[in-house]
Each structure stands twice: as C-alpha cells, then as structure tokens.
Amino acid sequence: MISEKMRDYVKNSSAIRAMFEEGRRMASLYGEDKVYDFSLGNPNAPPPIGVENAVMEILKKEKGPSLHGYMNNSGFLDVREEVGKTINKKHGTAFCPDNIIMTVGAAGGLNVVLKTLLNPKDEVIVFAPFFGEYKSYIENYDGVLSVVSPDMETFLPDLKEFEEKVNKKTKAVIINSPNNPTGVVYSEEFIKQLSNILERKEEEYKTSIYLISDEPYRELVYDGMEVPYLTNYYRNTIVVYSFSKALSIPGERIGYLVFPKELDDFRDIVDGANVATRILGFVNAPSLFQKVAAKCISEKTDLSYYDRNRRALYEGLMKMGFTCLKPQGAFYLFVKSPESDERNFCQRAKKYHILMVPGSSFSCPGYVRLAYCVTYETIVNALPKFEELIKEYK
Amino acid sequence: MISEKMRDYVKNSSAIRAMFEEGRRMASLYGEDKVYDFSLGNPNAPPPIGVENAVMEILKKEKGPSLHGYMNNSGFLDVREEVGKTINKKHGTAFCPDNIIMTVGAAGGLNVVLKTLLNPKDEVIVFAPFFGEYKSYIENYDGVLSVVSPDMETFLPDLKEFEEKVNKKTKAVIINSPNNPTGVVYSEEFIKQLSNILERKEEEYKTSIYLISDEPYRELVYDGMEVPYLTNYYRNTIVVYSFSKALSIPGERIGYLVFPKELDDFRDIVDGANVATRILGFVNAPSLFQKVAAKCISEKTDLSYYDRNRRALYEGLMKMGFTCLKPQGAFYLFVKSPESDERNFCQRAKKYHILMVPGSSFSCPGYVRLAYCVTYETIVNALPKFEELIKEYK
Fold first, then answer.
1. Over its length of 394 residues, how does chain B's per-residue pLDDT go in tens digits?
2. What residues in B contact A13, CB-CB < 8 Å?
3. Where does chain A have alpha helices with state H?
4. Whether complex ipTM tops 0.90
5. A355 — phi, psi (to 5°)?
6. How far apart are CA A87 and CA B227, in angstroms?
7. Distance (Å, rounded) from C-alpha B134 to C-alpha B216?
C-alpha cells in the first residue's frame, strides 16, 4: 500500500541495508576488530575540540528562547554573514547573507535546489562514477537523470560525451569534487573547459543551465591540492556545502547553499529555495548547530588522520598488485576489481570479513569503493586479509 | 526559470513574508514594544532548564565521533527505545524502537509519511480550519487535498461531510488536535465516531485509509484536558510528534513518527519511511538533539506561561465584544472577524500595530488567528488597542 515509486526504492535499498546488517552480524560473530568495514562514509576522526567549546560558549552567552527558536527559513542572519565573509576571504568572492541559505546538510541542500529548479522531465546531468543518491534526489522532483561516463584513466568526466548530452531540456549539472567515490579533484583547467561548454550551450539553446557544485569534501584534500571555487568560473553556479566532513558532525545535519547574485533569475531562485526549505519540512537548519558551524567555520577535522589512512591503504593495496587511483581528496579509494563483475569480488571479500561497496552503486561497474574514514588499526589489520584475497586471483 | 509549481508557491508565500516584513518595519518605526505581533507560532516561553543541562551532560559523557555521527536513518536506538517506553507508560501502548523513527520536526515527519504513502492523485482529507502547509506537503507528492468543513459552533469537523468525502482514492486523513488554529481538542467520543466511519469505509472500498495524527501541541492543553492517543482507537494510525512546542525548541528540528505494528503493510511503510528520510535529504534527525529530547522527554515548557496569556487574551477580547472560541490547547485563539472579509479586518488592525493571520490562510474565512505564544506584556498592552479597533465596528 506504499507508493509505487517508493516500492522500487525500498527494494533497491534493501541491498545496502543487507550489507550493513551483514557487517553487524559479522561483528557480533567474530568481534568488532575482526571485521573490516570499508562500506560507510561515516567519519571516524573526532570533531575538532572547537565544536564542543562552541556549544558551551553559545549556551552560556545566549539565553532565552531565541537560540532554539524559529528564525527566517534561510537561517540566522549573523551565521549567514559569517559564512559569506569566510568564503569571500578564501575565494575572493563578494557574498552577503542574501546569497546564503543554511540547510539540513548537503543532502537537504541538494533537495532544496532541485525542488526549486526542476519541472517534470527536466534533465540533470551527473558524472559517473557518482553518489547514488543523486538519482533519487532528481527523481523526487520528476527530473530525468542523464549520466556522462568518465575517462577510465583519469576518472575525469568525458567532456566530449558531456557536450553531446547537453540539450534543450538540460536544467542542471551536478558536479562533485573532491569526488565520491574516486577521490579525484577536478583541476582549474578542467573547470574552465566545462564552463566553456556550458556557456556555449546556454547560448545555443537560449536556456539557463545551472551548475550545482556538491562540495561536502572541499576541506578534505591532500598534498596541498587546490579546489577551484566554481562561482569564480561559471556564472550560473550554485554551491552546496556541508560541515559534515569538515567538522566530523554528519549527524547534526548542517550545511549551506550559495546563490551568487549573478545567477539567472537570482531573486526567484532564492525565494523559491526559501519556500522549498519550508514546504519540504526542513523549515530551517538546526539552530544551535548553525551557530556552532559559524563559530568553527575556520576549524577543520584532523586531516592527517585521513591522510595516514589514505597512504597506508593506497600503498598497501598497490604493493600487492591492486590497481587504484591515488585519491587527491575525500576519504574514498576506488579500486579496480580483479574480476569483471565487482559484485562477485565484494562477495568473495566477505570471506575475509572485508566489506566494500560495488562500483555499480556509483554507475561504474568493475570497481569497488573503500571508505577509509575508519580507524588506522582497521587498515593495518585489513591489509593481510586483502593479501589473501588477491591471492585467489593469481 | 524556477519550476512552475514553485513559481506559484513563491507568489503565495510573499503574502506571509509581506506580513512578517511589515511587523519588522513597524517595530523599527514605532519600537518593538509598540507592535503587537500575534502572527507567528514561535514559542516565547523558554525551554525548560533541563534542555541546557541535558546538552552539558551528554557532551561530558559521550566523547568521540559517534555522538555527532551518522546513525541508522531511523535515529539512535536508545533514543527510540526511550520514546517508545514513554508513550507506552502514558498511553498503555506497546511500542518498541521498531515502531519509532526520529524526524526533523513534525514538518519533516509529515513529508516522510506522505512521500511514503502517496501515489499521484491519491486524496488526503484535512479538516478546516487547518495549518496551510498541509496543502504544500500533500502537493509535494502530487496528492490531492480534500477539505472537510467544520461545524461552525464547535469547530469540530462535520462528520457527515467527512463520510461523504471519503472515497476509493482516499489514502490518508490528517488530524490535528490540539488544533492549529482553533485550539480545539477533539474528544474521545469524536475520535470514536471518526474511527468508526474510517473502518466502515475501509471495509466498503477494501482499501487502507491511514489516519495521520499531527500532534505538535499534544503537551499544550489546559484545565486538565485529556488528548486521546489515536493508535488506541484506530488501527491504521500514524502519529507525527514534535518536541518544538513541548520543549520550546522549534529551531532544533526534532520530532518522531510512530508506526504501530498493526498498520496494514507495517513493514513496507517503515522501510519506506526510512528510505524517504534518506532520499528527501533529512538522512537522520539532528543527532545531539535526539539525545537531548530523549533525556527531556518527561519535561515540559511552562504551561502556566501560555495559560496566563490564554486567559488574559480570551477574557479581554470577550469582554469587549469579540466572539471567540475558548482554546483548550495549543497557543492560538480563533476570533470571529467583525466584518465578513477578515483580510480587511487584519488590514485595519495594522493601524493599531496589531498583526494577525487571516482565517483564509487556514481555509476558514471570516475568522482570524492570534498566536498568544508572545510575552504577557504584549497581551496586556495590546488589549487597549483591540478596544479601539472594535470601536470602529460599533
């Protein structure tokens, strides 16, 4: 008796839940430390100490109902001011509170943007491999997903294919760099080429094509890598940010949207996003953590925690003969499956208590994703198991 | 370039924003204490001291990333257990964590339920006067709103009309007691009659009709009034609860859903609601405040604060000749407009710096809603202004 659309989602999502439950079952059978669960993107690095201090300070300073009360659907004015200022300082932009809407994480932000923009049958282009939830977010508003394949060497989107897939119905493009699941960071050169194509296509079709930059991993980059700020390259860019990974607080559901005033139909889009925030039931981003995020906006989770994991896992797996892309950001490693059907490979890995996500979940079969936001010990202890696993293929 | 559906919403919502901005404008012109803003349901009673203490205790006790991390989409297990136990103790039910999903407030909860249940064109019955957002929530999932009028004496739904409006396409009924905007609490007798009709109609059409009980004001009742727990009366009941008003923390966005195991298609509905929580972008209810809510579940905002306001405003207005229903719960007073077009009346009231919401916003023209969740002083100072206002009609 649930809706037909939901019936399909439930069927598909049971696979993910099955894996999660398999992990729980294994842990109870063999012990937590004998299960190597690389399937979840749940940060294991603790939040910076500033987070807890911020909570204490805010509670001490702000008394009365306003701290926990409703505010404008966009969020607290002072918080949005702080967010704008911080972006401006880092990226030479000129955002004020009018350009910022606080959101219930990046997932909430993406839903707000897509609800605002999409008419039924509008197309949204995503670049494989991509975070599987994009498909559901787009379908929530009866949009149509259009997938562009990657160059299999660099895992950058194939721009020739992209250019062919942009058409009159293309309303938006979702870009995710640093990328989940590959860890690739798109270079400035790449962004310029992409923007160029978009501008030409807008001109050709006399439409507006919005580039939605989903950036939950912006702060998680290694080796001094730079992540270009896309509003500086393409006029119709909307930024979707989350503090989940930067501050290790994904459960608190706090992020923001950036709408540059240069956007086509800027005023309508911001008004629409406010209404969408309200009617989708978010109403506003959680109030206390809006203030916490603003106070901790220049803090960052311990990057060396993930970097150590990254190097240990990447080098360990390469040494034993696995093929993988060295991640430049985020906390995922995308590994080539030693057999063509990577779901079989994931199945085999379970024998060694290793849990991974098949690339099919990211529209990229033949690969598997390992989330290395686990403890260092998990990686150290898992490596000999991977060694046994790869031996099966030699 | 925003979606057509959103374009209409933006147009309509500008009326509400206009009023809000009018209030802000007046306050800056005449001073905050010279503006009597009864338009917003933003609790002015402070949260019980337990809320702040709970935050401190939780931060002291729970270290590491798990407190602020992802959990199951349903929410923390211990929190759901506590919620179930508390309901069981109060209402003689038998809920366990499996029956509970923590939500981003009641608005988030309602969206999750409607997303789970509705196929396009499914009908959802609501009882006028009703919270205007229900319309948007239902239309988010292409459902069709069906409105049943009230008995104009008691403001209880007209059950004869209700019976006529239930049909084969009726998927759900939303009920809201204590009611926004009338403050009416539906009696046990009324609930029994309603359940009876629903059961007969389910039998007649061989369908499941879900009764969605939206209960953000459950804890706000006066004069020892009892609010029946609907799962005890009708099998296919889903409860939507929010801590926003009970704990004066609406900005924190925390509530829960109750799915009794007796529901038709219980397993599908709970699985569906979990998926809906994920794909709508909520992902999970804010983590710290899940724990805070569980710790404070038996606490309550200072009811005497609202009760004093209720009596002062009701008695004051009645004495000067206004007609209004004595509210039994919530913090709203529904007042008959002295002229048939209540929007004119609201307009005139602005001269006296009084802001109210026209009943048309609740599908009940000819009345206005006053939210008395303001300071007591606002009411005391507003009464002479109301006196001047009503004189215009004598």
1. 899 999 999 988 766 667 777 888 898 999 989 999 999 888 888 999 999 999 999 999 987 678 999 999 999 999 999 999 999 999 999 999 999 999 999 999 999 999 999 999 999 999 999 999 999 999 999 999 999 999 999 999 999 999 999 999 999 999 999 999 999 999 999 999 999 999 999 999 999 999 999 999 999 999 999 999 999 999 999 999 999 999 999 999 999 999 999 999 999 999 999 999 999 999 999 999 999 999 999 999 999 999 999 999 999 999 999 999 999 999 999 999 999 999 999 999 999 999 999 999 999 999 999 999 999 999 999 999 999 999 999 8
2. 271, 274-275, 278
3. 4-30, 49-61, 77-91, 105-117, 133-140, 159-165, 188-205, 266-279, 287-295, 303-319, 342-350, 376-391
4. yes
5. -115, 130
6. 49
7. 14
CA nearest to B134, candidates B164, B106, B171: B106
For A226, other C-beta atoms within 10 Å of its C-beta total 9
Q: Which residue of A has its CA nearest to B135?
A: A279
B265: chain A residues, CB-CB within 8 Å: 1-2
Peptide linkage before B129 cis (omega within 30 of 0): yes
Count other C-beta atoms under 10 Å from residue B295's C-beta.
Answer: 18
DSSP-assigned beta bridge partners for residue B150: B157
Q: How far apart are CA A65 and CA B301, in angstroms?
A: 11
Q: Mind telling me how many Å the CA of A153 is from chain B's nearest CA?
A: 31
Distance (Å, rounded) from C-alpha A70 to C-alpha A393? 58
Residue carrying structure tokens 């219930």: A104
DSSP states along A261-273: TTSTTHHHHHHHH
Neighbour count for residue A341 (Cβ, 10 Å): 13
Local structure of B350: helix, strand or coil = helix
The residue type found at A374 is: V
Measured distance CA(B1)–CA(B378) in Å, rounded: 43
Using left for φ > 0, alpha for ψ between -120 and 50, and beta otherwise, residue B374 falls in beta
Report the distance separating Cα A338 and Cα A352, nearest Å: 16
Q: Of chain A residues 259-278, which have a CB less than 8 A from chain B?
A: 264-265, 268-269, 271-272, 274-276, 278
Q: Do B251 and A9 touch (CB under 8 A)?
A: no
pTM above 0.95, yes or no: yes
Nearest alpha-carbon partner for B51 in B291, B330, B373, B306: B291
On chain B, the residues whose CB falls within 8 A of the CB of A10 are 268, 271-272, 275
Q: Which residues pair with A125 in a beta bridge?
A: A146, A173
Q: Nearest Cα to B175, choosing from B118, B217, B219? A: B217
Closest to A360 (Cα-Cα) out of A382, A374, A345, A379: A345
Q: Which of A5, A44, A285 sits opposite B65 (nearest CB)?
A: A44
Give me the amino acid identity at B364. Answer: C
For residue B59, give the amino acid letter: L
In Å, what is the CA distance from B363 to each residue of A169, A258, B150, B171?
37, 35, 10, 21
Q: How far is the C-alpha of B236 from the C-alpha of B336, rounded, in Å?
A: 35
Instruction: Confirm or reject contact between A104 and chain B (CB < 8 A).
Output: yes
